[in-house]
């Protein structure tokens, strides 16, 4: 099935959208992306995603000129054209077409694409039974300058996810080069201990997830103690509850790590409470 997409100021069908073979996103992974979930035709927390994309574009010196309001209008058109209500939305920004070589000698004309497709939900059973994790053999550098940005260079994440699937589990948890917990291939991680919600701090060199930020805010708004800190794997193994977050899965409980059960009943009380609050927030903004 063909879908309408937004490509550089024009809405076209995906089969008619063409990129230059010199586009730096294709040549070098020189670009950024965001994935967003739309509920009832409303792209949830679009402002947070646009802000992250804009901040990362500024950090990487990639021109980005669209406002949140402009993007919201574009998404509305795509949802209408594609007859979608609940949807997967992806924004992709590359530095654009430039044949000067590895380091551009002039400012490029960026490529900006927005896709809107039907959303394929995670299995309902996963939210009841939790998902299994392993620890990845890959380590995250504490000094890598792009780890806090959602870049098109996603091969490391691909290898981490592939490693997990080959072991028959949902995902792999990555430690950094100092042995501290960071995140999974496509999600942030939280654990609960003695009713306190804990997640790796940005100093672990992680992506500042939009859903991660929402969960922290929900904790603060509902009187739940929350901490961002550096910690090692043992604290996860001793946790009362563990869960993952991203914009597509929302809040997903974890049942085991490296073959060891974590937490008690699934989902745990705090995980279930935050999940319900998250869904209430979605409904209030849809």
Structural summary, described in words:
This protein is α+β, with helices and mostly antiparallel strands. The chain has two domains: 4-118, D-amino Acid Aminotransferase, Chain A, domain 1 (2-Layer Sandwich), CATH 3.30.470.10; 124-284, Alpha-Beta Barrel (D-amino Acid Aminotransferase, Chain A, domain 2). Helix content is 29%, strand content 32%. It has eight helices and 15 strands. The chain has helices spanning 24-28, 46-59, 68-81, 124-129, 155-166, 210-221, 233-237, 269-284, and strands at residues 4-7, 10-13, 31-39, 42-43, 87-97, 109-118, 131-140, 171-176, 181-184, 188-193, 196-200, 226-229, 241-246, 250-257, 260-261. The strands form two sheets. Strands 7, 8, 9, 10, 11, 12, 13, 14 and 15 form a nine-stranded mixed beta sheet that branches. β14 and β15 form a beta hairpin. The two termini are 27 Å apart. The relative contact order is 0.14. The mean pLDDT is 96.
Largest sheet report: 9 strands, mixed
CATH class of the largest domain: Alpha Beta
Query: Percent of residues in beta strands?
Result: 25-35%
In CATH terms, what is the architecture of the largest domain? Alpha-Beta Barrel
Structural class: alpha+beta
Number of discrete domains? 2
Which fold name corresponds to the CATH topology of the largest domain?
Answer: D-amino Acid Aminotransferase, Chain A, domain 2
Bin the helical content.
25-40%
The count of β-strands is: 15
User: How far apart lie the N and C ends?
Assistant: 27 Å
